[in-house]
Structures are given as structure tokens and as C-alpha cells.
């Protein structure tokens, strides 16, 4: 994340990355709202100082607004008439924990320490955990500026702790590099069990560590030929003293002008030997015999290949020796540079014949700082919590490739940020996933699909004014709502522009990540639930219709009722304020209701129609327990989901109804569902007895997203799913069943149903607006 115009470069500090001098740039002016955020509530610090970059970590408490719902206290029947809505809404302050990580060049260290000292209001800590070679070099400066005692931590222990932390908490942390792809970063789904793995840290030399558990790892090898070798020999060969400039030279070079290739030795006969003619037979081999000058670019490229191939072969041999197929590379030699990742990837693939994978990390530059922080915070046991990346406050992965983003080539004046929010409850896999290690939540990878990427980015841009309007309207009594909404607009707009240029910034780009980024930005500017009033009104209106709807259903014969229940589920799903086609109808026609929504639905046969198969299943024995992921408030959950739940309960099936822990669009939240269920139970004996006997259980998902990641669900929900022997999963809505989980494979039966409320997507799927997806799947025996 770079702020042009903010930084005034002093001559003494303009040496840039890799400077070995001790002069500092003291003329820097920092925007406190953007970089060292929330310092007034900072509690604990850690720092990792390398040869050219400093990474600072601190923990803070963040105060933000949350919308709370509370049921009215009805003391009698007449009181029921006093309130149109089923509950009241209040906005309260809530305190949550956040981890901040800031990365900047060492040339700014004194100015940054001064800034922290000036803005640090109150901190519990008297010690700062420090790691990296610079922890010794800058010890006195840190203690003088911050008045904190420096406690030095072991570099390798910090790296391992940091690596474990990001692999466990950031689902798309690791990626492979593919030079011919566009973009070149291909993200991997983290395996539920991250151990064992090999960590190859390429600093001045190379350290190779086998990591077996959270606390058990061993240094198994290394080499003195590493990043320092490339830098040192490169400086001798090219007279270039700066590491990044040396890499830039290499990116423009042709190593074959300097290296002796197989075809140079064997000519055309190399094919009979089964060898590629472009294979390097001898690094720098031509320099001994050729009577010519070699360009700096070609020599730098040859040197890079020589060292990368050596490291790749070494890593491959250790991986095979210890039977490991996952090798993570980190250290200043990598630092997101495409040319280094490309050569290491090629080397690993060549020497392992594709059996070992070279993996890189989005946040590898922060590993030491994260680990040092965790070491200092052990009494708080941060590993007992789950953490989530806050997209609103994080820079994302920035490519330094000249072809991808020229602005990133010069890193001077650039501050990279990472923020992680502590989640209220630990998140785990849904136990019913068929293969958690291969589960991918998202249906379409927008990083791959350029046409879809262009459409969805434009779609979110066009919707921005409507979101701003809704946010302001949700806080009519606030004097600064309009100002905050404009700040939200600017921040989210900037994120969208970044993603146009660098779609890999936060991992694989998907509709889910675009929605989640928007929710993070809304929360950042204290718009916790822009649709709270809409949901309150729609829940109240739908509750008044509940008895009429179930009475009508009860008059139907069994087979007619099953179809009517499914049509009710689908009609309810039309009421989605996140879909432009629907929000326009709801805003222009306040009378649009449940029956009107039914008439909007596509006639059978539906676009995906497994209804007959589902009906046949219902003629068999009842399911033991159904897990239902609900979508929208109002008509959807009350007139669509609850009648369906009621029918399952009547069949003898227990039901777990899972709703979002926090708000997103007009999706029903767990706290709202409790009040809705209480009101329905007062009207309906089936629901009343099921709640009382705990045959109907309401739980939270652990998510605040319009989509659904089945690998990050509330631990309590997962425990309940196991205890109740759940054998049916129902996923409802476009976000949860189409944008995500359309291809999710489960151990048990599943129903995925949604109404397609986006014309472009409907056309792409071969349907039209309001086409129906009704996908019933039975796992293979």
C-alpha cells in the first residue's frame, strides 16, 4: 500500500532497499489513520529487523459499533399490537482484538519509532520482543525511543511460529508460481493438517527446517550459498550494490549468452540422449572460452539461475530424504520477486520430476514479526483463537514484476500492512466434508476467468452508490454518517482498482472475497449492519403471514405439500437485497410479496431440477438430523425456511438451523433467528415443542459473510453436527449454494437450492433471470 506525495525523501535516506549505511530518513510524514493505526490502544509489541526491512507487530483493542437486537417484553396479548416489529435494535460499542503488522524500509526506522513514541498513549507492555539480525544492531535505538526493554528471540523459532500461524489462519496463504499464467500466482487451499512440511529460509545463506508439529521442528541442513552469495558475487560482476537492482538486471538478462547449455556440447545429438538442449550444462561455462564482453544483465541472470538451481536441488533432496512433498520458501531472497520464484519453481520441478511442490507465502515477510509477537504473548495463548485477515486494513500481495505493476518496482516510500482480527470463537471444518484437503469453497475463480472478473468488478463498482445510500439511511440520527459513508466509498473503490490491476492481492479473487472486502470496509467506518431496519420491518411483516402460510400448506395432500414447500423455499430466496434485480423491485413496489415472488420463479423443469429424485427420497425413512444454512431475513427465513423445517420435524427429523454470527447484507443473523423462532413457537405447536425438546436447535455459523466457507465454521456447530449424526445438509441462496459450495462434496445427502437473481450469471449458466437451482446429491456408497 503506497501513499504517493506523503513521503518527502531526504537525501541521506534515498539509498533505498539494501543500503548498508546507518543514516536515516527523518523527514517522513506519516498518516496515522492509514499506517500505525490504533496506537492509542496498543498493548504489546514485537519487531523483526532484517538487512533492509523492518517489520513491526503490535496488538490493540479496537472499539467499533455493533447492531444488537432485543425482543420486546410482551406482558400480554394487547402488548402484541403495540409494536409493528418483533424486536428493537440498538447500536452498541464493542471491543475486539486486532493484530497489526507494518513493514517498512530500515531507512525509516528512527522516524517510525519517534512516531510510535509520540502516539503511544497507554501500553501494558514494558518489553518488546525482537528478532532478526537488526535486533542486535538497533537494540539501543529501540530502547531509547520507546522506553521498552528489548527481549531478543531466536530467529528460526519465530519464523516457524509465524509460518504455522499464517497457514492455520489465512485460508489462501500459500501459492505456487506459474510463469506462463495470467496472473502468475496460483493459490492453494490449505490442508486441514498443515504438518509436516519443509521450510527453506533463504537469507544470506540457506537454512532448511523440518516442521513436524506446532512445537517440534529441527534444522536438518543448509548451505552457505544463498541470497548473500547472489548479492555479493552480483556486486562484483556488475558493480551494482543494491539487491533489488540486481534482480531487476537479472529479469532483463539472457543466461544462455553466458551459460554453456547441453546443445552447446552435443549439438543436435542431445535429443538421442533424451536431454533438453536448453538445459544448463555449466553455469558461466561460456565465459572461459568466449572472447567477448558479457552484459551485466546476462551475468546477473546466469548467477541467479546458478544459485536458485543449487537451492532447489538441495531442497528437493532434503524433501525426498524426509518424505515431504510440501516445501515453503521464504527469506529476503524471495520477497515476492517473480524472477526468483520462477527459477526456484523450475528447479524444484526439474529435480523432483514434479513430485515436490515449491510453495511461497503471501505474508512471508511478516513471519519473523508474527512469531516474535506470539512468543511474547504466550500467556494470552493467541493460538487458542481463530483469526481472520481484515481486508480493509491490509495491503495484500503486491507483485514487483515490471510487467505486472510498474509502480511496485520502486519500493521506497512503500509501507505494507497486514491486519488480523481475533474471531469470537474457534473455526473448524464441517465434519461432513468428503475430503477437507481438496475442498474449495468458491465456484468460479475470477483470477482465472478474465471475462467474469471484468463483469463482477464492474458490478460491484456500479452497486457502490446504492450501498453508500443504504449505509447513510441506516443511521438517520448520526451527524457524520454521510462523511463516513464517503470514506467507505473511497476505500472500497480503491480496493476494487487494486484488484483490477492485481487480482491476486488477497488470494484467489472470487465473488465471496469481493463481498467480504465490502463488509470489512463498511465495518471499518462503523456501518455494522446497514440493512438492520429493513430486516426488522420485513421480519415483522413476514411473521404476520406465517400462520396463514402454514394453514394453507396443511390443507394440501402430502405430495402437493412437498412441492409447495420447495416452491416456498425458492420464493423466499428471491428476497435478497444484495441482488440488483431484486432490490430495484422491492424499492419500486412495496407491495411485492411472497405470492408475487412465486410467480417470478421459472416453471419446471428448472435449470437444475433434481426435485423428482428428492420426492422419491422423502417417501423413504426420515433423515435423522438435517443441518440447514439459512440465507435472508424476512420472507425467506420465516415463510420459506421455517415451514420446511416444520415439515422435517413432523417427519421425525431433528433440525439444526445455522445462521450468520454477524450481519451481512439482509442475511438473517443468529440473534435475529432466536427472536423469530420464539415468535413462531408462540404461534405453532410443532415448532414450540421441537424447541422445548431440543429437536430444533439454532446455532451460529461463525461467519459474517453472504457466502459460506465450510472449512471455517463455528466449533460448536461442528460438535453438534457430530453429536446429532447429521445425515442431510441443506444450503440455501445464491451466495452459499451457487457462488460457493456448488461443487462441495459431502459424506451425506445434500440439497443446494437458489434462485438466480443476476441476469449475467443466469445467462452464463444457460438460464434466465429467476432460473431455479435445485440440486439434490447423494454420496456414492
> Could you state the oligomeric state of the chains shown?
single chain
Helix content: 25-40%
- Give the class-level CATH name of the largest domain: Alpha Beta
How confident overall, as mean pLDDT? Answer: 88
Low-confidence stretches: 1-21, 75-82, 399-413
The neighbouring-strand order within the major sheet is 5-4-1-2-3-16-15
- Rg of Cα set: 29 Å
Shape-level CATH architecture of the largest domain:
3-Layer(aba) Sandwich
Summing up helix and strand content along with how strands pair, one would put the structural category as alpha/beta
| Total E-strand runs | 25
Give a quick account of the main beta sheet: strands, pairing sense, barrel closure. Answer: 7 strands, mixed
User: Number of helical runs?
Assistant: 25
Give the N-terminus to C-terminus distance in angstroms: 51 Å
- Number of separate domains: 4
How big a fraction of the residues is strand?
A: 15-25%
The CATH homologous superfamily of the largest domain: Uncharacterised protein PF01937, DUF89, domain 3
Global morphology? globular
What is the third-level CATH name, the topology of the largest domain?
A: Rossmann fold
Description:
The structure is a single chain. This protein has 781 residues and is of the alpha/beta class. The protein folds into 4 domains: 11-170 and 366-422, no CATH class; 174-258 and 294-361, ATPase, nucleotide binding domain (Nucleotidyltransferase, domain 5), CATH 3.30.420.40; 447-524, Up-down Bundle (AF1104-like), CATH 1.20.1700; 532-777, Uncharacterised protein PF01937, DUF89, domain 3 (Rossmann fold, 3-Layer(aba) Sandwich). The chain is built from 25 helices and 25 strands. The strands form 5 sheets. The chain has a 7-stranded mixed sheet, with helices on both faces. β1 (42-49) and β2 (53-71) form a beta hairpin. The longest helix has 26 residues, at 296-321. The radius of gyration is 29 Å and the shape is globular. The chain starts with 41 loop residues before the first strand and ends with a strand. It catalyses: (R)-4'-phospho-S-sulfopantetheine + H2O = (R)-S-sulfopantetheine + phosphate; (R)-4'-phosphopantetheine sulfonate + H2O = (R)-pantetheine sulfonate + phosphate; (R)-4'-phosphopantetheine + H2O = (R)-pantetheine + phosphate. It comes from Rhinolophus ferrumequinum. Homodimer. Interacts with PKM. It is found in: Cytoplasm. One of its GO terms (cellular component) is cytosol.
Amino acid at each position: 500500500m503506497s501513499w504517493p506525495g506523503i513521503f518527502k525523501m531526504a537525501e541521506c535516506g534515498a539509498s533505498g532497499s539494501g543500503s548498508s549505511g546507518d543514516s536515516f530518513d527523518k523527514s517522513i510524514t506519516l498518516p496515522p489513520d492509514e499506517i500505525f493505526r490504533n496506537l492509542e490502544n496498543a498493548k504489546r509489541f514485537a519487531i523483526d529487523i532484517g538487512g533492509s526491512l523492518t517489520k513491526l507487530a503490535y496488538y490493540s483493542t479496537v472499539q467499533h459499533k455493533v447492531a444488537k437486537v432485543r425482543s420486546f417484553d410482551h406482558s400480554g396479548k394487547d402488548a402484541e399490537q403495540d409494536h409493528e416489529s418483533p424486536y428493537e435494535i440498538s447500536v452498541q460499542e464493542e471491543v475486539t482484538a486486532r493484530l497489526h503488522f507494518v513493514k517498512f524500509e530500515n531507512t525509516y526506522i528512527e522516524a517510525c519509532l519517534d512516531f510510535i513514541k509520540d502516539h503511544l498513549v497507554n501500553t501494558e507492555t514494558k518489553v518488546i520482543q525482537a528478532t532478526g539480525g537488526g535486533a542486535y544492531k538497533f537494540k539501543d535505538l529501540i530502547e531509547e525511543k520507546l522506553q521498552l526493554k528489548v527481549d531478543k528471540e531466536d530467529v528460526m523459532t519465530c519464523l516457524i511460529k509465524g509460518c504455522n500461524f499464517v497457514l492455520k489462519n489465512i485460508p489462501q496463504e500459500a501459492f505456487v508460481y506459474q510463469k506462463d499464467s495470467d496472473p502468475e500466482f496460483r493459490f492453494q487451499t490449505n490442508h486441514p493438517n498443515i504438518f509436516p512440511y519443509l521450510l527453506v529460509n533463504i537469507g544470506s545463506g540457506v537454512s532448511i527446517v523440518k516442521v513436524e508439529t506446532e512445537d517440534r521442528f529441527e534444522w536438518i541442513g543448509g548451505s552457505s550459498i544463498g541470497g548473500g552469495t547472489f548479492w555479493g558475487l552480483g556486486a562484483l560482476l556488475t558493480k551494482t550494490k543494491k539487491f533489488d537492482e540486481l534482480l531487476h538486471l537479472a529479469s532483463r538478462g539472457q543466461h544462455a549468452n553466458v551459460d554453456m547449455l547441453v546443445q552447446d556440447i552435443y549439438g543436435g545429438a542431445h535429443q538421442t540422449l533424451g536431454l533438453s538442449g536448453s538445459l544448463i550444462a555449466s553455469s558461466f561455462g561460456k565465459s572461459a572460452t568466449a572472447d567477448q564482453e558479457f552484459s551485466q544483465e546476462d551475468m546477473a541472470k546466469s548467477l541467479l539461475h546458478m544459485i536458485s538451481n543449487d537451492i532447489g536441488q538441495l531442497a528437493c533432496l532434503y524433501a525426498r530424504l524426509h518424505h515431504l512433498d510440501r516445501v515453503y520458501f521464504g527469506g529476503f531472497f524471495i520477497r515476492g520477486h517473480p524472477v526468483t520464484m520462477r527459477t526456484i519453481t523450475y528447479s524444484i520441478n526439474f529435480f523432483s520430476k514434479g513430485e515436490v511442490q515449491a510453495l511461497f507465502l503471501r505474508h512471508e515477510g511478516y513471519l519473523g514479526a508474527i512469531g516474535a509477537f506470539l512468543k511474547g504473548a504466550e500467556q494470552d495463548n493467541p493460538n487458542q483463537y481463530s483469526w481472520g485477515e481484515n481486508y480493509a486494513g491490509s495491503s495484500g500481495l503486491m507483485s514487483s514484476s515490471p510487467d505486472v505493476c510498474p509502480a511496485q518496482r520502486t519500493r521506497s516510500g512503500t509501507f505494507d500492512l497486514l491486519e488480523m482480527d481475533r474471531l469470537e470463537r474457534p473455526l473448524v471444518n464441517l465434519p461432513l466434508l468428503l475430503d477437507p484437503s481438496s475442498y474449495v469453497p468458491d465456484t468460479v475463480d475470477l483470477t482465472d476467468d478474465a471475462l467474469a472478473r471484468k463483469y463482477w468488478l464492474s458490478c460491484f463498482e456500479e452497486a457502490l452508490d446504492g450501498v453508500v445510500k443504504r449505509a447513510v439511511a441506516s443511521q438517520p440520527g448520526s451527524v457524520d454518517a454521510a462523511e463516513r459513508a464517503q470514506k467507505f466509498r473511497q476505500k472500497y473503490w480503491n480496493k476494487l482498482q487494486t484488484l483490477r490491476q492485481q487480482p491476486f492481492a488477497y488470494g484467489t479473487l472470487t465473488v465471496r472475497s469481493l463481498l467480504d472486502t465490502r463488509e470489512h470496509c463498511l465495518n471499518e467506518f462503523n456501518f455494522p449492519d446497514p440493512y438492520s431496519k429493513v430486516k426488522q420491518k420485513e421480519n415483522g411483516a413476514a411473521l404476520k403471514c406465517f400462520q396463514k402460510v402454514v394453514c394453507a400448506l396443511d390443507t394440501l395432500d402430502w405430495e402437493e405439500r412437498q412441492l409447495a414447500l420447495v416452491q416456498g423455499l425458492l420464493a423466499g430466496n428471491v428476497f435478497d437485497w444484495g441482488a440488483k434485480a431484486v432490490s430495484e423491485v422491492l424499492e419500486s413496489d412495496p407491495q411485492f410479496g411472497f405470492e408475487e415472488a412465486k410467480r417470478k420463479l421459472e416453471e419446471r423443469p428448472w435449470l437444475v431440477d433434481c426435485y423428482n429424485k428428492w420426492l422419491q427420497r422423502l417417501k423413504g425413512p426420515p433423515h435423522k438430523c438435517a443441518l440447514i444454512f439459512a440465507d435472508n431475513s424476512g420472507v425467506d427465513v420465516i415463510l420459506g425456511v421455517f415451514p420446511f423445517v416444520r415439515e422435517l420435524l413432523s417427519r421425525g427429523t431433528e433440525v439444526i438451523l445455522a445462521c450468520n454470527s454477524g450481519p451481512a447484507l439482509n442475511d438473517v443473523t443468529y440473534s435475529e433467528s432466536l427472536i423469530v423462532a420464539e415468535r413462531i413457537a408462540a404461534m405453532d405447536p410443532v415448532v414450540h415443542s421441537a424447541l422445548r425438546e431440543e429437536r430444533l436447535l439454532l446455532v451460529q455459523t461463525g461467519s459474517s459473510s453472504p457466502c459460506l466457507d465450510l472449512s471455517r465454521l463455528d466449533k460448536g456447530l461442528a460438535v453438534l453436527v457430530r453429536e446429532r449424526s447429521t445425515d442431510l445438509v441443506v444450503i440455501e441462496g445464491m451466495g452459499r449454494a451457487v457462488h460457493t459450495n456448488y461443487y462441495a462434496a459431502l459424506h451425506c445427502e445434500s440439497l443446494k437450492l437458489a434462485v438466480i437473481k443476476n441476469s449475467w450469471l443466469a445467462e452464463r449458466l444457460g438460464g434466465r433471470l429467476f432460473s431455479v437451482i435445485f440440486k439434490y446429491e447423494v454420496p456414492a456408497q
